[in-house]
Amino acid sequence: MIEIAILGYGVVGSGVAEICRMNRSVIQNRIGRYIHVKRILDIRDFPDDPFADRMTKDADLIFSDSAIQVVVETIGGAEIAYELTRRALQSGKHVVTSNKELVAAFGPELMLLAQENNVKYLFEASVGGGIPIIRPLSKCLAANVIEGIAGILNGTTNFILTRMEQDGIDFAGALTEAQSLGYAEQDPVADVDGIDACRKIAILASIATGQYIDSTLIYTEGIRNITSEDMAYAFRLGCKLKLIGRYQRLPDETCRLIVAPMFVPRDHPIAVADGVFNAILVDGNALGEALFYGQGAGRLPTASAVVADVIECALSTESISRSAPWRKSDRTLIRAHDACQVCALVRLDRSVSVDSIRETLKKTSIEWLESAAEGELAFVAGADGELTESDLELALSAWPGKVVNRIRLY
Amino acid sequence: MIEIAILGYGVVGSGVAEICRMNRSVIQNRIGRYIHVKRILDIRDFPDDPFADRMTKDADLIFSDSAIQVVVETIGGAEIAYELTRRALQSGKHVVTSNKELVAAFGPELMLLAQENNVKYLFEASVGGGIPIIRPLSKCLAANVIEGIAGILNGTTNFILTRMEQDGIDFAGALTEAQSLGYAEQDPVADVDGIDACRKIAILASIATGQYIDSTLIYTEGIRNITSEDMAYAFRLGCKLKLIGRYQRLPDETCRLIVAPMFVPRDHPIAVADGVFNAILVDGNALGEALFYGQGAGRLPTASAVVADVIECALSTESISRSAPWRKSDRTLIRAHDACQVCALVRLDRSVSVDSIRETLKKTSIEWLESAAEGELAFVAGADGELTESDLELALSAWPGKVVNRIRLY
User: Fold this and answer.
1) Do A312 and B139 touch (CB under 8 A)?
2) Is the pLDDT of residue A163 over 70?
3) Residue A165: exposed, middle, or buried by beta-carbon count in 10 A (0-12, 13-18, 19+)?
4) Does residue A200 have an active-site annotation?
5) Neighbours of A254 (CB within 10 A)
6) Which of B93, B100, B120, B200 is catalytic?
7) B283 contacts on A by Cβ (under 8 Å)
8) What is the rounded distance in angstroms from the CA atom of residue A371 to the CA atom of residue B399?
9) Considering Cα of B273, then A290, then A314, then B318, what sign does the dihedral take?
10) Fold match between A2-129+300-323 and A337-409?
11) In terms of CATH, what superfamily is B2-129+300-323?
12) B204 near B133, Cβ under 8 Å?
């Protein structure tokens, strides 16, 4: 028997309890033990819940209970969750979480604290929901230099973009629908503005490099200003429009990191992910490209990854070097956004002259597109690799009030 | 330092040595140790090879060397490889392999022998080449009942089918091309007749069930009789034609297993794999569907998975229950092929009367297709779920010499 406690009985936390009950016998058959949820901490009351008898509001009951080996943190956020995770690790308990905000903000500190207390801090469920990605990246690709990672990492925005693309709904309508279906929070900022995807690519990049990547340093754009016309351009380009989190290793050992909507060719493997699905493409120098695809969110899928980590904690006595904390580097790992190369669709008011565009962007190539909206010009700049983000911003600043949108090509 | 020996210096074995050298520093940074290839066993001579100084023809030099922790078996086949794997395990050395034939034939015995000697027998590279699938399936999905697995598991046949579909080449021409590119062996039987895919789905099904699935009991068809006309029907059906290995858990705790060419809808995630790529879809009762995609073969991709297993062996002291051998069941796990439900495209000589077809298949639905070849009738039978494999075979036997082909729908 593996005894666990769950901190936070919300969507994922209650899913963890349900899987431990529903799949008790398959877990028992597979590893010779079942998982027993001994305590559940929540400030709310759940009098009619099947686990009502395990509920407590007193965290000390959990931390002082030597029978509890693994603590599941499904509170979310980086405040109470941070305090309780620290206390759990200091109490000598493994901690397993789906909390990307906490891992992205305090990963190195919590991993170090786990190491000092000879326990594990695992977070497979923090990226890609139930899709196996953290363990494959850190273990199956352990013999690879990771050259790049690109992911559709947020199911909410992918649902919105898919509805806009396939059904012609506008952003506001698709967001409202996502909220009514429970795919988006009432306050959708973290999803819609790319913050959630940014935390996830930061976690993946930290695993790839072994060095802590601070998510707050990553250039991030969300999808608020995507319109039906942009979807028409996606069609013209033979692409889908996706919110992409991307890590690229550069030859000088720095890296490029960006979160932004991008046009992705329709036959690119990553474009397979529509709706709430996620897809993550990893490029290793020996493996080549591998894709991981599945439900990036949801109660049972995410809980499934949490329970897998619980099992690993309980069974493994792997040497501590394997889960060494991410190093904090004193040099700048992330290449300045301005200096990065870019290729983008640019939509300008038709009052801008073609000569002015040619002159302003003379360093790079321009490929004209048939306009998808009245009164505008559209072209792809930078396909020859001769355009930087700062070049592009400078060019666009030459036409104040005339820029309808600009969206990068993957 | 992790000291290893490589048995068999062919494509994968030499790739393992190359990765240990090429990615030495990234491995050192990640796990605090590098991998040193101390000995390489091969009956051939490689006087000009960079590893020529480690070559030996004497296996005892390896098994008696207490410094060697991990033995990499990349000989292939189930004869010499079997003997040497037994001796390595009995010598107290972990064994890592890419040899699906050996795992499919002797997996339970070798896993048990490893357990008795308190070492590991790992085979991530045996399925999907470099694609992480064995470890994700056994660890990341440990909390799931595995409801189904479907895979494009053989890169050679997928290359041939992709060339036939996209470029109109016939089977013989595509096979010759695959051979000249090194994707197919001079004796292509194991690939073309589905034997390789069959071994791989047997390994995956054994992991899913925890019980040994004997690959020789799995109904298996290859792709030899696939023609350009079949590709035309694939197009008409909105499908791609793929060699699929499939496991389905049935409600009575038995399972269905089959390897056969199947029409797969073009927008199905598994259809993303063209050319030498593989894709494996896993359905867990908590996770839902997850897809794993990448290069299913090739020197460095496959070697990358082998080296990941080497690292796991060297670092992990995970309790033995996790890698418990597959149980051998005394009851029949695999449902009789004849009794399984099927939906298939049937191509008949036009001399067969429509009335005869309707009468012979009156139990099930018939959907007529526009013929893609002169002088034939084509229809899909069994879309209503009312047709078994034996029903279909019985029906086809009513028209001796008149059946052009019959291919299942996924």
Assistant:
1) yes
2) yes
3) buried
4) yes
5) 16
6) B200
7) none
8) 58
9) positive
10) no
11) NAD(P)-binding Rossmann-like Domain (3.40.50.720)
12) yes
pLDDT 10s digits, B312-352: 998 876 544 445 789 887 677 899 999 999 999 999 999 99
Q: Which two tokens stand for residue A296?
A: 């990036």
In chain B, residues with a C-beta closer than 8 Å to the C-beta of A288 are: 130, 294-295, 298, 300-301
Verify whether the Cβ–Cβ distance A143 to B318 is below 8 Å. no
CB-CB under 8 Å, A304 with B143: yes
> Could you tell me which of B324, B398, B316, B410 has the C-alpha nearest to residue B355?
B398
User: B337-409, superfamily in CATH?
Assistant: Peptidase S8 propeptide/proteinase inhibitor I9 (3.30.70.80)
- In whole angstroms, what is the distance from residue B94 CA to residue B69 CA? 6
Closest Cβ opposite residue A321 in set B31, B286, B298: B31
Is a pLDDT exceeding 80 seen at residue A28? yes
Residues 6+ apart with CB under 8 A from A73: A7, A8, A81, A84, A85, A88, A95, A96, A97, A99, A102
Contacts of B286 in chain A (CB under 8 A): 15, 19, 22-23, 130, 300-301, 303-304, 307
Of the partner residues A30, A301, A321, the one whose CB lies closest to the CB of residue B210: A30
CA angle, A75 then A78 then A82, to 5°: 80
> Domain B136-295, what fold?
Dihydrodipicolinate Reductase; domain 2 (3.30.360)
Distance from CA of B87 to the nearest CA of A (A): 26
Closest-CA distance, A240 to chain B, in angstroms, reads 14
Structure confidence by residue, pLDDT tens digits, A34-58? 999 999 999 999 999 999 999 999 9
State the complex-level ipTM. 0.93
By CA distance, what is A133's nearest residue in B? B136
End-to-end CA, chain A: 48
Gap from B274 CA to chain A (nearest CA, Å): 10
pLDDT tens track for B118-143: 999 999 999 999 999 999 999 999 99
Query: Can you tell me the distance from the alpha carbon of B245 to that of B148, in angstroms, rounded to the nearest whole number?
Result: 11
Do A144 and B26 lie within an 8 Å CB cutoff?
Answer: yes
CATH class of the domain at A141-294: alpha beta
Closest A-chain CA to B32: A321
Query: B304–A141: do the CB atoms touch at under 8 Å?
Result: yes
Task: Tell if the CB–CB gap between B23 and A144 is shorter than 8 Å.
Answer: yes
The DSSP secondary-structure symbol of B282 reads E
Residue indicated by tokens 């493997």: A269
Q: Taking the domains of chain B in order of start, what are their residue ranges?
A: 2-129+300-323, 136-295, 337-409
Cβ–Cβ gap A294/B300 under 8 Å: no
Backbone angles phi, psi at B205, to 5 degrees: -70, -35
Cβ atoms of residues B96 and B309 within 8 Å: yes
Q: Which amino acid is at B92?
A: G
**A25, A281, A287, best to mutate vs chain B, most B CBs in 10 Å:** A287
Q: Can you read off the two tokens belonging to residue A154?
A: 């947020």
B285: left (phi over 0), alpha (psi -120 to 50) or beta: alpha
